[in-house]
Design brief:
The complex is a heterodimer. Chain A contains 1 helix and 23 strands. By secondary structure, chain A is mainly beta. In chain A, a hairpin with a 2-residue loop joins strand 5 and strand 6. In chain B, helix 7 runs antiparallel to helix 8. Chain B is globular and about 55 Å long.
């Protein structure tokens, strides 16, 4: 039986083993594989199984379906191909590789982990938050003096000084360590202070455009950037 | 103890160097900088470095803010805008990093230090008249508030009864029970019809405030500005101090 391994940011959140001829993938709960996240269409794609072959078909989704990082409309899947949909990656295995898959009920067996619930809950929270705040938001993750901060200035300063918009902590941090600049609809973070003290997703940066979900670290303080629509 | 207070250097290296020499001669123990290291003049990096190395308290001015991209320059006049565009392209990342550690305001002894005004420093208000000074006196608790920003050396004195007077004097002895807002003038672009660089020495032993005027090689500064193709008006005003 073929198996689909669903990962979210490199963490396995679900393994789906199927006997069905067709598996649908999308944001709504009536899909066989539910990927509840912005960037995923309601009926995003489907995989059709035929004898030993599997074919992925993109349902003209808004943000596309990728196989091994190539955008596809319809593509035959080979063993270990990686399908990317939004922030999720789905690895296709033509055969279940471990035996202990448990009993299957209606031909589809889903092993949902706690992790997925957490991620989905979080995504839901971010969606609500953006609606509430009406714009892009920083979420305080560590050593921050707020849980959420709406970025409503054209320039938002971050640092150790009293007068900055967003306070950050850390040894040898500059008064104004970084700024987030809003130009048109793009947010860009720029390091102004001491080198190496501003990181995005772990990498020290001088200037970088921000994407939804980016982890911003200024000194010891960590924020998640949530982009408003 | 003598404390030197300098402000509004605006990238004028020749003026700053001579002022620092004069401060040394005067035997000041501390130097505090009240903002606007850059803008207008053509040595922003050198001035930021000198100020960082020599000053104890270092504050940000509106031109420093703009140079770091923290503020839109839409409200700047045309000359300031042209020179700010120039400054932004010349300002090195290292200078930005140094400026990033400057403060918005500070307290030292019985002094409150800020670039523009004690009321909402980031709004960069001017204190030009007694009426304006009246509100600002309420916004700090110390005896003295030292400011820069307007480039015009003048001070406001509030007597114990609450009456405020404004003075333009090269020195003064301060009175017990009185409070003061003191504009220390500009090192790099004086505008009180005296082209010499201006700064202040506060002497806690003699209870006096002295405005120092220091000559510098204005021609040299102007030549450099011409080479940098900065606006003529900015070059010419240095010679007359207007």
């Amino acid at each position: 039986m073929p198996e689909i391994i669903v990962k979210y940011e490199d963490k396995v959140i679900e393994r789906v083993v199927s006997e069905k001829k067709r598996m649908t993938i999308g944001r709504t709960s009536d899909n066989d594989i539910v990927l509840d996240n912005r960037g995923v269409s309601r009926k995003h794609a489907q995989i059709e199984f035929n004898d030993n072959a599997a074919v992925i078909i993109d349902n003209e989704s808004l943000n596309g379906t990728f196989v091994n990082n190539r955008k596809v409309g319809e593509e035959i899947l080979r063993d270990n191909d990686v399908i990317t949909i939004g922030k999720f990656s789905l690895t296709y295995r033509s055969q279940v590789q471990h035996e202990d898959t448990g009993a299957h009920l209606d031909g589809t067996m889903v092993l949902k982990t706690k992790k997925q619930k957490e991620l989905i809950k979080r995504d839901q929270y971010e969606k609500e938050l953006i609606q509430q705040m009406g714009g892009s938001v920083l979420l305080g993750e560590e050593n921050s003096d707020f849980s959420e901060y709406q970025i409503d200035h054209n320039v938002t300063t971050i640092g150790k000084a009293k007068f900055v918009h967003v306070h950050a902590k850390g040894f040898l941090l500059s008064g104004i360590q970084a700024k987030i600049v809003k130009e048109h609809d793009q947010f860009t973070i720029v390091n102004l202070g001491r080198r190496g003290k501003t990181r995005v997703n772990g990498e020290p940066i001088n200037r970088q455009n921000l994407k939804n979900g980016d982890l911003i670290q200024v000194g010891k303080t960590v924020f998640t950037f949530v982009e408003g629509r | 103890m003598k404390i030197a207070l300098i402000s509004d250097v605006h990238g004028n290296l020749e003026a700053l160097e001579n002022v620092l020499r004069d401060i040394e001669k005067q035997g000041a123990e501390k130097i505090h900088f009240l903002g606007d290291a850059v803008g207008y003049g053509c040595n922003p990096n050198e001035c930021v470095k000198l100020i960082s190395n020599h000053c104890d308290i270092k504050l940000l001015g509106n031109h420093d803010f703009a140079a770091m991209g923290l503020e839109s320059i839409e409200n700047f006049n045309q000359m300031a805008k042209a020179s700010m565009d120039w400054t932004q392209t010349k300002l090195k990342p290292k200078s930005v990093r140094l400026l990033a550690d400057f403060d918005m305001d500070a307290v030292f002894l019985d002094y409150y230090l800020v670039h523009s005004s004690p009321t909402e420093p980031e709004k960069w208000r001017y204190i030009l008249s007694i009426d304006q000074a009246e509100d600002h006196f309420e916004k700090f608790s110390q005896t003295f508030c030292f400011v820069g920003h307007s480039h015009s050396p003048t001070y406001f004195e509030k007597d114990p009864e609450g009456y405020i007077t404004q003075h333009f004097k090269p020195e003064m002895e301060y009175n017990r029970g009185y409070r003061y807002i003191i504009n220390i003038g500009s090192v790099g672009q004086p505008r009180d019809n005296d082209p010499r660089a201006c700064y202040v020495i506060a002497d806690t032993d003699t209870n006096s405030i002295i405005y120092r005027r220091v000559e510098y090689d204005i021609n040299k500064t102007q030549d450099k500005m011409r080479k940098a193709k900065l606006p003529d008006f900015l070059i010419e005003r240095l010679a007359v101090g207007a």
